[in-house]
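Supplementary Data S3. Sequence and structure tokens for construct A.
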Amino acid sequence: MGINFFNKVFPQKWDFIGMLRSQAELTAQGVQTLLAWLMEPSTENYDLLLQLAGQADTVRMEMEEKLLEAFVTPFDRQELYYISVQMDRIVECAKSTLLSIVEYKVEPREYFIKMAESLSEGTSIFSGAMISIIDNKPIESRTRILEIRKAHAEMEEYYRKGMSELFQTADAMEALKQHEIYSLLEDAAFYLGSTVDIFHRIVVRIG
């Protein structure tokens, strides 16, 4: 049963998919801002990322409140909740990556940037995928799922390459600092993978 048909039969009080779409857009913008900062650090992008992360968190909390009150949701409320939480963790990892690099005085590394590029690609595709699910286009949604999984796999590959390079670093303290950054980006990759897994289940159920 498609979402549009479901909404006609069981009208909803709140636009949960619209909320997810807003959160997805803010998440994608936040990761894109991290990437821009890694390539050319600036106060403007530093402040913007913190702002976007805050806005994304506000959308998530608002949706959680509405889920407690809602009688009807477009699909399983647990999946709505979990996909929102996983997205929020992506942008929180992006924020933590930024703050940690600044606090630890670590220079942006090649594989930091490559991982952020793939994360940005994956979150941007996911933001577009929310439109395809709203328009009830399961084939388009599945294509985007494959593209997101590809971005996730690239992050894993860059993580391994970055760690391989790190293991050759003679400066133990510098290696420890860089490892922390790689771990945060690896966590973001994990949450991207979790997000697309939940999204895939949703697409299968409503397709």
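Construct B, processed identically:
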Amino acid sequence: MNAVTDALDLDRAFRSGLKLGHLRVLAALERVGRVGRVAELFHVTQPAISKQLGEIEGLLGMPVVQRQGRSVVLTAAGEVLARHGRHVLHSLDAAHRELEDLREGLAGTLRVGAVATVMPTLVARGVARLRQRAPGVALTLKEATTDELFPLLREGALDLVVSRTRVGRNPGDLQERLLGRDPMVLACSAQHPLVARKRVRWTDLASQPWILPPEGSAIHAALQTLFDKHGMRPEGPGVIANSVAVMPRLLLDGDLVGLLPRAYAQDLIDRRQLAVLPLEVPNAAQEVRALWRRGHDSRLLHLMLQSLAPENGIAGAPAR
């Protein structure tokens, strides 16, 4: 019965008792470690902060702080609440910034470059979200391989690049952020002879005609690594395609095989027009990243980052 009562009290605390002020106090206390210092940060008295801590403990039915010398440390319960509280406060700050942008009618020009495998999916969706939030923004989009996009970014001809290529361990003048993952799959027509086989080996693909990406792209480098690993080179006459948009049509119409982004091919896979061959493809080129010049970020650029990957909560400090 006590356990049931405790559970009901905890539910009640989260439904109507805990306040944002409580979360802010805990997050600040975790950061500075002293009640007096928290009081200074919030411009209130020390008893006022102690009162809020007491309210939290009363609502939860468990201690959230304990004294350790002249400092105060969080208990396990306090750490849990502070950790999740930080996420809540971070999301509210992001919402605040977005609402300010909407209210002020954020405008300007943003020049975005992207590789072909993300332009029609992730970037297109991001642009649609950005235009909903900031319809006054003018956008310029450029599709190219990374060996062309990175120099344009460094020269200032582009504000943002979306790519499957990492800038490396020493990014120098560039910053980057992981937006998400879009795995590459080895695709072919659902009518391709290889689909009916019980087992497919990489050696079976040596004699097949391929759709090959252009040199300088992340997919080209990943595919070459894959060929080297299995000691093979495509023997059949194939196609070099710089546009991901043409690949499904080429695959559907013939006996070609090639690497496609899963997100781009998914609809045709679901309709059983394309098939995915059961062969392992490299993890390389599966991560999609945004890159921009260090010190040249802006509210508009960060709004575009949010629009590209809203589920990641990426409105905060850039990663790496």
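Residues 146 and 182 are 17 Å apart (CA to CA). The mean pLDDT is 82.
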